[in-house]
Design brief:
It is a multi-pass membrane protein. By secondary structure, the chain is α+β, with helices and mostly antiparallel strands. The chain is built from 6 helices and 6 strands; from the N terminus they run H-E-E-H-H-H-H-H-E-E-E-E. The protein has helices spanning about 1-10, 50-55, 60-65, 70-95, 120-130, 145-175; strands spanning about 10-15, 20-25, 185, 190-195, 195-200, 205. The longest helix has 30 residues, at about 70-95.
Length: about 220
Amino acid sequence: MSALRRKFGEDYQVVNTSSSMTFSAPVKRKRQRFVEKNGHCNVQHGNLGGETSRYLSDLFTTLVDLKWRWNLLIFILTYTVAWLVMASMWWVIAYIRGDLSNTGHDPSYTPCVANVYNFPSAFLFFIETEATIGYGSRYITEKCPEGIILFLFQSLLGSIVDAFLIGCMFIKMSQPKKRAETLMFSQDAVISQRDGKLCLMFRVGNLRNSHMVSAQIRCKLIKGR
């Protein structure tokens, strides 16, 4: 058996069919595909150096390429943290000015933000302002310049965050990554003569009734040299 393995290699094993006859049969090993049928290339990059900084330098594309669960997690965490931070800033302004202690006892007192008495009311005021709901019970007075400056900063920051995250989600939803799920490939590829030349041939089918305009197919051939 050792002589047969040295001759034919480790991919062969000895199979006994009778007491007087032996022969070597190839053992089929399932090889990992170089390119999946959905177009995903099974190549991993390693030992590049500075890979994390390169991904962070193009943060928008990195967020678009992330999986949906990470996108939703970043989406929720970003808005939650931004809401809590801005609501805390409104609460700090009300606390420094003494609006929290003057809860309607002095009619002549003008607070920075009307009807903001604690952190939940400051959080509700921020949500009403950011979402442009405006119920009417909470509003900024003209005797609060720091509140006006914070309101301008809040509007600019909210526009930037909305444009960044909503744009990222919109681009990710518009990418046809699942389009390959309705494309069928033949199970086996064959080599046959076509126009006097040997050609590698396989079939591709579309399960959808919609037509694919200007479709292009690229193939990769891996062989040893």
